[in-house]
Specification:
single chain, alpha+beta, GMP Synthetase, Chain A, domain 3, 3-stranded mixed β-sheet, 25% helix
Amino acid sequence: MSEELFKPSVAELKEDVIDMLKTIYDPEIPVNIYELGLIYVIDISESFVVDIKMTLTAPGCPVAQTFPGEIEAKVGSVPGVGEAHVEVIWEPTWTKDMMSEAAQLQLGFF
């Protein structure tokens, strides 16, 4: 089967998107944005459009204007993704409790 004919399932594509998100690090905290709990929603349509709802650690975050575009570009580069859209939302407010256990351990919160 030709590679250009291969289309991943939505579930497979979501795993690939999550793997990409795990390569993107918060500029102020040395943990990736997925493990930090900044990603609230990943929706992937049947036409492989990825919609991400995420937050930042603080509304005054210095990268608030540029970070979503960087994430869109990286997620958009995942093979199989048609388009990627990132929306920054502020509810619920991010807290350190949203981090994965691994992230909390890495930052010494235990």
